[in-house]
Specification:
- This protein is mainly alpha-helical.
- The protein has a domain of 110 residues: Cytochrome P450-Terp, domain 2 (Cytochrome p450-Terp, domain 2, Orthogonal Bundle), CATH 1.10.230.
- 59% of the residues lie in helices and 2% in strands.
- It has a 3-stranded antiparallel β-sheet.
- A hairpin with a 2-residue loop joins strand 2 and strand 3.
- The longest helix is centred in the middle third of the chain and has 28 residues.
- The protein is globular, with a radius of gyration of 22 Å.
- The termini are far apart.
- Bound molecules: carboxymethyldethia coenzyme *A.
- The site of carboxymethyldethia coenzyme *A has 22 residues, from loops.
Length: 429
């Protein structure tokens, strides 16, 4: 792993140097104002974190280093992790080394299965995923080294070491949860060292390993969901938790608990359910007018349209476009994909005029389409979709926290105020 470790070290040193200059040259520079609207509005738009793994442009979407989605959508999750944490794509040798490292570390300890199998069959897969990760927390190298005493300059190395151990186990852990809940608990226990993370996931889920296009979809899925800068609920939560030097298992589990909410990652499950309800009511080939009526009735009932809107994006999510390209190439006749397209035809116009134009972004996000593709390939238990999102998003948590620890970023602790303080303060203005 020397090559990866050396590259991460160099990146951290260079970022640290740049930040030191910034800190020394502009210690009092003002980045923005904090308004009442900001603090009562979920801190939306407040620039208050540094995140170097990725950046979300409101009009162009996700950037990793200077690469946009069309530049990296054909890469593997392994390449993307390398890119997130080092800032550059791996060479062939570096990639092979990383793949074999993940392979060596991929076995989930037996006690985790005992824990998960003892849980109720009604437990949500995201809860099991989060608990499965927590159950492995005892293996944290960071935790053990920290208890013995290590210099701050070594924190990132053990965060990276824990990250590699954790990421390697995610396909087996996630697939095991799928099989415990939906396949009578029969785990697929043999492994194939030639498979990469996405191939291993597909195989262990129990889907035909020789169905290359499902493995390709899973590869794309794990790439597109990997990171979305630092302020989204899941990444931010993992950053806050890790900033207390809680290890990466604790931080990843916490981040995933945020991802499990319907306004964030769970939206992919809700979207598939939404389409299923349309099909239940109108059949598998609803007309555009029927879809429009369903959307309007949903809003009238006080619900949000899942898969539409975004806190940062102001255009159709390029991840949606990337999945649509895959769908058009591999399953254009899927009724679910067809309904996704009909929704895309009607929802933006409806949302534009909804609540007096209050919806900041009427366009689809990644969750509007991702589940329909999984469904097409036979993964019909849509409660599992957010786990698929989660496997990928842990790559981002790990990369962000490794770099944050390398930069010796302090514990995150913004100040809260009371309503009385606010009233008093504003009276004096
Ligand atoms: N359907 C109905 N109303 C919507 C809406 C949607 N898809 N998107 C936004 N709105 C409403 C909001 O609920 C809000 O109404 P109130 O002020 O009455 O509460 C108003 O429009 C303004 O919200 P906004 O500034 O446009 O959006 P936010 O930044 O507050 O929220 C998001 C962003 C994603 C939570 C919101 O668009 C939403 O709830 N979308 C549906 C759920 C979804 O797809 N989530 C997944 C996002 C991607 C991800 O994180 O995975």
């Amino acid at each position: 792993m020397e090559k990866l470790i050396e590259k991460v070290k160099r990146r951290i040193e260079s970022l640290a140097q740049e930040l030191e200059h910034i800190y020394n040259d502009y210690p009092e520079a003002v980045i923005g104002e904090i308004t009442v609207k900001n603090i009562l509005g979920g801190m939306r738009g407040m620039k208050s974190l540094v995140c170097n793994t990725s950046y979300v442009d409101p009009y162009k979407g996700l950037f990793i280093s200077d690469l946009e989605i069309p530049d990296f959508e054909d890469k593997s999750p392994e390449e993307i992790f390398f890119l997130l944490v080092t800032g550059s794509l791996p060479s062939v040798d570096e990639l092979n080394e990383l793949k074999s490292e993940f392979n060596k570390r991929s076995r989930v300890p037996q006690h985790v299965w005992t824990t998960l199998k003892s849980m109720s069959q009604t437990t949500h897969p995201m809860t099991m995923f989060s608990i499965g990760i927590l159950a492995m927390e005892g293996e944290s190298v960071f935790k053990q080294k920290y208890a013995r005493g290590i210099p701050k300059s070594d924190y990132w190395k053990y965060t990276l070491e824990d990250s590699l151990n954790l990421i390697a186990k995610l396909p087996e852990l996630a697939a095991g949860i799928y099989r415990i809940l939906f396949m009578n608990g029969e785990l697929i226990d043999t492994s194939d060292e030639k498979l990469d993370l996405a191939g291993n996931l597909t195989y262990r889920l129990g889907f035909n390993r020789h169905n290359p296009s499902f493995a390709d979809l899973n590869r794309l899925y794990l790439v597109l969901h990997c990171d979305h800068e630092g302020g989204n609920v899941s990444a931010f939560t993992s950053r806050v938790v890790n900033s207390a030097l809680s290890n990466i298992y604790l931080a990843a589990s916490a981040g995933l608990n945020g991802l499990a909410g319907p306004l964030h990652g769970l939206a992919n499950q809700v979207c598939l359910n939404f389409i299923t309800c349309i099909h239940d009511q109108f059949g598998n080939n609803p007309t555009v007018d029927q879809v429009r009526d369903f959307v309007t009735a949903t809003l009238d009932a006080g619900k949000v349209i899942p898969g539409y809107g975004h806190a940062v994006l102001r255009v159709t999510d390029p991840r949606f476009t990337s999945f649509m390209k895959f769908g058009d190439a591999h399953c254009s006749d899927s009724p679910y994909l067809q309904t996704v397209k009909k929704l895309f035809q009607v929802v933006p116009d409806i949302l534009r005029s909804y609540k007096g134009g209050k919806v900041a972004n009427p366009w689809p996000n990644v969750d509007a389409i991702s589940g329909s593709l999984l469904y097409h390939y036979g993964m019909t238990h849509y409660e599992f979709y957010t786990v698929m999102f989660g496997i990928s998003r842990v790559l981002g948590f790990c990369a962000q926290n490794t770099i944050a620890r390398g930069l010796h970023q302090p514990i995150i602790r913004p100040k809260s105020v009371t309503t009385a303080w606010l009233k008093e303060y504003l009276k004096k203005q």
